[in-house]
């Protein structure tokens, strides 16, 4: 997996050591995460202490916020897959869609309302956008905290395909 927090490195490392480490981190996402205090999550997810997105919610890891409320945070993905690529997360730690309880359904509705607002604010509501939730290993979920990708700003390619990591 490609390290999606390479931009974050500039905040953590002097430029001379940065050049040496980026090649290793680019190849080894798990190494990058463990060197920066985030335990790599297993298939069952992680508790909020180990969670990358929980660290973003608490402000330990910086983000470029697009929206914030009492329950929801939306921020730019640092390796965008489209001209507009925003992550929308609940502040409550929920490892994946599979762990959403009946009591969490109002939170899911709120996430979808925020997605509508963010799409409008980002200027993609009229032209169109995708709202994607990856769940589990075959769904390519890499951070075990429920999150949605809002993608837009260009005509998007095919939605499905078999990942090279699954061959």
Derived from helix and strand composition plus strand pairing, the structural class reads alpha+beta
The portion of residues forming beta strands comes to: 5-15%
Mean pLDDT: 79
How far apart lie the N and C ends? 14 Å
pLDDT under 50 segments (min length 5)?
1-13, 15-27, 39-46
Strands in their spatial order, largest beta sheet: 1-2-3-5-4
Helix share, percent: 25-40%
Radius of gyration: 16 Å
- Report the total helices: 5
Largest sheet data = 5 strands, antiparallel
- Shape designation: globular
Order of helices and strands: HHHHEEEHEE
Number of strands: 5
Task: Give structural notes.
With 167 residues, the chain is an alpha+beta fold. The chain contains 5 helices and 5 strands, in the order ααααβββαββ. Strands 1-2-3-5-4 form a 5-stranded antiparallel sheet, covered by helices on one side. It is globular. The protein starts with 8 loop residues before the first helix and ends in a 15-residue tail after the last strand.
């Amino acid at each position: 997996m490609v390290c999606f927090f390479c931009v974050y490195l500039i905040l953590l490392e002097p430029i001379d050591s940065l050049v040496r480490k980026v090649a290793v981190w680019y190849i080894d996402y798990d190494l990058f995460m463990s060197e920066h205090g985030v335990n790599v999550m297993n298939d069952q997810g992680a508790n909020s202490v180990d969670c990358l997105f929980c660290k973003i919610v608490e402000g330990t890891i910086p983000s470029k916020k697009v929206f914030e409320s009492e329950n929801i945070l939306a921020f730019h993905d640092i390796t965008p897959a489209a001209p507009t690529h925003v992550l929308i997360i609940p502040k409550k730690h929920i490892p994946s869609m599979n762990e959403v309880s009946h009591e969490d359904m109002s939170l899911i509705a709120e996430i979808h309302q925020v997605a509508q607002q963010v799409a409008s604010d980002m200027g993609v509501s009229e032209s169109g956008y995708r709202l994607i939730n990856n769940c589990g290993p075959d769904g390519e979920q890499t951070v075990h905290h429920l999150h949605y990708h809002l993608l837009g700003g260009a005509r998007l390619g095919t939605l499905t395909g078999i990942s090279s990591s699954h061959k």
